[in-house]
Design goal:
Layout lengths: L1 H18 L9 E3 L8 E6 L9 E6 L11 E6 L18 H8 L5 E6 L6 H5 L10 H12 L5 H19 L9 E6 L1 H12 L6 E5 L8 H4 L4 H16 L6 E7 L2 H4 L5 H12 L3 E7 L6 H15 L2
Parallel strand pairs: 4-5, 4-6, 6-7, 7-8, 8-9
Antiparallel strand pairs: 1-2, 2-3, 3-5
Helix pairs in contact: 2-11, 8-10
Length: 311
């Protein structure tokens, strides 16, 4: 059985190699050491640029290798938490392959996970456009206590636009452009996904944010300090930008357990900020009962969400 599985994966890999275009990075893609039961998982390590040293993890479903049609792409933040629980810090993952098998069989999408850099995750995922609107004392505290310097959202976004998207669209048989891209994240990964849509609306069609981390800060570390300032600045930015966007799909949720339960008081004002843009976009904001803030929770939630929203 193991030998048949290995040969099946090897066969898929060989097909992928024969189908790949001739690009400068063609030889930098590898079959991941841990392979799923269906499809194939590849990885690519950036050797230069802002993302130098980080991996992209790409799941290609089995049916991709059987036709010549173009596929859409779903991009996920925190890529190292998506596929293999044996390699994650908490021994949990999103189990994305299982979600694809159960809820999206036959859908023409590939999944791309962008690894975070733990040291700078918060600085990259924080909505940099609101930074100038915060009081100087809040700016200083965030830079000193959380970010180890200024916010990095703009640098991270530029890397997505100029490094990640072109790399995927040059290497794999996918449709180009924002109409064919979705973006998914949890907690602060949901914040950066939403902020990316607001800052670059032409570059992504659908955004999914699970356990949206309102109001952008850890209460266990800062108590109630800065919550009002951060919430007001973020909501003002959301209201201004989302009201000008049309034809997108936005899904936001939270659970009612663990850390997610603490988000409840901040969702009414956030939903109010979305209000002007709701009619011109497909907008879903919901609370998921008996669900919380962990990869196991997100693994249970993401399959049905993608089934409904990823076309």
């Amino acid at each position: 059985m193991k030998m048949r599985f290995f040969l099946g994966v090897l066969s898929l890999a060989l097909v992928a190699w024969t189908q790949k275009p001739s690009t400068d990075n063609s030889n930098d893609w590898n079959l991941s050491l841990s392979q799923p039961n269906s499809g194939a998982l590849f990885d690519y390590t950036f050797k230069k640029g802002y993302l130098s040293g980080r991996k992209l993890r790409v799941f290609i479903p089995s049916h991709y290798f059987k036709d010549q049609r173009k596929y859409d792409v779903v991009y996920f933040h925190d890529g190292q938490m998506l596929f293999d629980s044996t390699t994650t810090w908490n021994h949990q993952s999103w189990d994305l392959v299982q979600a694809m098998e159960r809820y999206m069989p036959g859908k023409r999408v590939i999944l791309v996970g962008i690894d975070n850099q733990p040291e700078h995750r918060y600085a990259e995922f924080f909505p940099e456009p609101i930074f100038a609107q915060l009081p100087p004392s809040v700016q200083s505290s965030l830079m000193d206590s959380l970010w180890k310097g200024p916010p990095r959202f703009d640098s991270y976004s530029d890397a997505l636009l100029n490094e990640v998207f072109p790399l995927i669209e040059d290497r794999w048989r996918v449709s180009r452009g924002g109409k064919h891209r979705s973006m998914v994240g949890s907690s602060m990964g949901g914040i950066v996904s939403l902020t990316f849509l607001l800052a670059h609306p032409k570059e992504v069609q659908t955004v999914i944010g699970l356990s949206l981390h309102l109001p952008l800060i850890n209460s266990w570390q800062f108590k109630d300090r800065y919550k009002d300032d951060l919430s007001a600045a973020f909501n003002a930015y959301v209201s201004k930008r989302f009201s000008k966007i049309k034809g997108k799909t936005l899904y936001i949720d939270r659970g009612d357990q663990s850390l997610d339960a603490a988000y409840g008081p901040y969702f009414p004002s956030f939903e109010q900020a979305l209000l002007e843009g709701m009619e011109q976009n497909q907008t879903i904001v919901k609370c998921i009962p008996f669900s919380g803030h962990s990869e196991r929770d997100w693994a249970k939630r993401i399959g049905p969400i993608m089934h409904d929203l990823i076309k």
